[in-house]
Write a structure and sequence with these properties.
- Helix content is about 30%, strand content about 35%.
- The chain is of the alpha+beta class and about 140 residues long.
- The protein has one domain.
Length: about 140
């Protein structure tokens, strides 16, 4: 069964608050609205390990997130940009659209584990998998 959009929004807000993400990120999700301003966390340097930016600052990021959301029906709620030796990775985090997947999502989220649509911006390759994150400076950092 499909989860209603407003329920996905409520879950996104709860997860963002639980991870102490900057309030402007969770406040951008408004009940009843289909259009949300998305943010992404970017790994900076040791002084600023996570900086928040609007996703729409990068039209190519918006396209990746929108294409994924349209294909799956999931609600994208945040993204993480991480430079690696394999290329710059854009992890798209989302709330499942299927009610049967929500309980597993919430249990994993309590452990800092999120299912991600990981897009390698350097190679154009993408895959779905799980990543480990931690809250840092009002954003999220991918740690594994």
């Amino acid at each position: 069964m499909k989860l209603e959009h407003d329920n996905q929004v409520a879950i996104a807000q709860a997860v963002l608050r639980a991870y102490h993400i900057h309030p402007s990120v969770s406040n951008s999700f408004r009940k009843g609205s289909k259009k949300h301003r998305l943010f992404y966390s970017e790994r900076g340097n040791s002084s600023f390990p996570a900086v928040l930016y609007w996703l729409d600052n990068k039209p190519e990021f918006v396209k990746i997130a929108n294409d994924y959301a349209e294909k799956t029906g999931n609600l994208v709620f945040h993204a993480i940009l991480t430079p690696t030796e394999f290329g710059d990775l854009l992890d798209i985090l989302s709330i499942p659209s299927d009610t049967e997947d929500v309980q597993a999502f919430l249990e994993e989220a309590q452990e800092g584990i999120f299912r991600s649509y990981c897009y390698n911006l350097s190679t154009g390759e993408a895959e779905c998998g799980s990543i480990k994150v931690r809250p840092i400076m009002g954003g999220l950092e991918r740690i594994a």
